[in-house]
TrEMBL record:
InterPro entries: NLP_P60_dom, Papain-like_cys_pep_sf, Phage_pept_NlpC/P60. Keywords: Hydrolase, Protease, Thiol protease. Residues 2-146 form the NlpC/P60 domain. This is NlpC/P60 family putative phage cell wall peptidase. Transmembrane segments: none annotated. It comes from the Bacteria. Belongs to the peptidase C40 family.
Amino acid sequence: MSAVGPQAVAIARAWIGTPYRHQVSVQGAGTDCLGLLRGVWRALYGAEPELVPPYTADWSEPAREEILWRAAARHLVALPRGGVPEAPGEVLLFRMRTGAVAKHLGIATEIGARASFVHAYTGHGVVESPLSEPWARRIVARFQFPEGAR
């Protein structure tokens, strides 16, 4: 288990209640799922590792490019593909529809029978949701934050 995991969980939970706002990353004011991950990163490490270009709600779908997956692989530590999280603080990448690109992120908060994750969800804002079967079967990749948080 990553030593950074519990810190990531505490930071993510502090964002709960932040409204959903596309392409924003400001705790309490607005965020989307990528903005939540960016906010957790900033709290753990300081500056973000790269600039995030503007993106639309359907980003990467027309070109069918796994942009989010590749970005996660550049900065996070890849874990065995798919499956359920094995430790709190894992970053979960979801494919929302079969055949679609993976473009939703969450952070595992609990594992086992009471598995849950924090994510920014359209129409709901930042929430902690049970990692129910419909969510779990959409996981296509898992990552952990690198060691060395401040």
